[in-house]
Amino acid sequence: MESHLNTTLTRSRRSLADRASRTFGKFGVFFRGFMEEPGMVGSIIPSSRFTINRMLAPVDWDNCRLFVEYGPGVGTFGDAVLAKMRPDAHYIAIDTNGLYVDYLKDSIDDPRFTAVLGSAADVERIVREHGHEHADYVLSGLPFSTLPDGVGPQIIRATHDVLRVGGAFLVYQFTAVSRDLMRARFTRIDSGFEPLNILPCKLFWGWKDAE
Ligand SMILES: C[S@@+](CC[C@H](N)C(=O)[O-])C[C@H]1O[C@@H](n2cnc3c(N)ncnc32)[C@H](O)[C@@H]1O
């Protein structure tokens, strides 16, 4: 009885998600990803342009050769990052969701951009495999509160190690869980808040200082 109910719920969730992705384009694809993996996606709607602008404001684009993004979803930050990036810089976007990675590969046609199916926890290997030693900036839209146990701290460690000295980890989240995790590695963390987002969100910039 219970398994019949679960199957019926899964089917109706899937058909709602399919209809949404056909009808609402980019937003529909995002919503479909949420319906399939709610804990990994963590939000039903992409970030606002206010969050994008505020989050990227401290980036020194002239000195950015490699920009990495975790959890790009349907590429909410993609146009803004590519518009500001140097012509010879690279942008690697890493997401665990194959639906999103396929969408990014189909929709972003820029030689500086690469979408990778994988986990942020493997950022060091991914960066090396793409011919770089370090990242200048790493942006994260990951839902740290709902990631599987141990994954959050692993991502913070790997991110600190992959960044060059002077680089930064840019993080936006509905809660401050990410900042609490960042404190294990980042000694200097700036904070901000963006009310014009669904839901209003907290912003953190963790700077990698010389040891
Ligand atoms: C809240 S969505 C952010 C979407 C988008 N960046 C935005 O601002 O609209 C979180 C994203 O993180 C991805 N994700 C979850 N765990 C991940 C991991 N370990 N590595 C990379 N991406 C992950 C999900 O698939 C989803 O695309």
TrEMBL record:
EC number: 2.1.1.17, 2.1.1.71
GO BP terms in the entry: methylation
Keywords: Methyltransferase, Transferase
InterPro entries: SAM-dependent_MTases_sf (IPR029063)
Protein's name in the database: Phosphatidylethanolamine N-methyltransferase
Biological source species: Alteripontixanthobacter maritimus
A GO term for molecular function: phosphatidyl-N-methylethanolamine N-methyltransferase activity
